[in-house]
Design a protein that fits this description.
It contains 7 helices and 2 strands; from the N terminus they run αβααβαααα. It has a two-stranded parallel sheet with strand order 1-2. By secondary structure, the protein is mostly helical. Helices cover about 75% and strands about 0% of the residues. Helix 1 runs antiparallel to helix 2.
Length: about 180
């Protein structure tokens, strides 16, 4: 087993749990459909969280050429995975925790913690891009900074969540085109 495989086992477990959590929440919301007040902005947010989980997993394959890993590299990637798990955990309302299954109210309330967790994940990106992928500093800082600004607005201006979730979705599409 290479060091890359060893490192990515732990990351894969955390990302797998995040994806499982999102899919489980979707399934329970489908089962409780009569109590759900659906809003596309929250659904799109959940999809974006899923995309970032898959994107980190995919991008991790590009790190296979690293022969010697430091504990710092491992710790940063684990932290990023944990932040994505946090974003997944809080992305959607959960039946049973409350009677209200209003997607938009959830996103403007508890869902802001999901955005905060995603913001913390975005702070990991520059380290990975600069240190592990040897990307130039400016693009490695500017692209995540744009996402961080959108996330900060989502956290601090919850009434703008509807349109900010769409802006973040477009940003996510940009990130995918750059990284895959």
């Amino acid at each position: 087993m290479t060091q890359h495989e060893y490192v990515f086992v732990a990351i894969s477990i955390i990302l797998g749990l995040a994806i499982t959590r999102l899919l489980h929440n979707v399934a329970t919301l489908i089962r409780a459909f009569s109590r759900v007040n659906f809003h596309p902005a929250t659904a799109v947010w959940g999809l974006c969280v899923m995309i970032y989980c898959l994107q980190l997993w995919w991008v991790g394959w590009g790190l296979r050429s690293i022969e010697t890993w430091s504990f710092a590299d491992f710790a940063v990637l684990i932290a990023g995975s944990i932040f994505l798990y946090g974003a997944a955990e809080m992305a959607l309302p959960v039946p049973g925790e409350s009677r209200e299954l209003n997607f938009l109210n959830h996103s403007q309330g508890l869902g802001r913690l999901s955005s905060l967790s995603m913001l913390l994940y975005f702070l990991v990106g520059p380290y990975v891009n600069i240190k592990l992928f040897a990307v130039e500093v400016l693009p490695a800082l500017v692209i995540p900074a744009i996402g961080a600004i959108i996330l900060l607005l989502m956290i601090t201006v919850p009434r703008a969540y509807r349109w900010l979730s769409l802006v973040f979705t477009l940003y996510t599409g940009l990130v995918l085109t750059v990284t895959i």
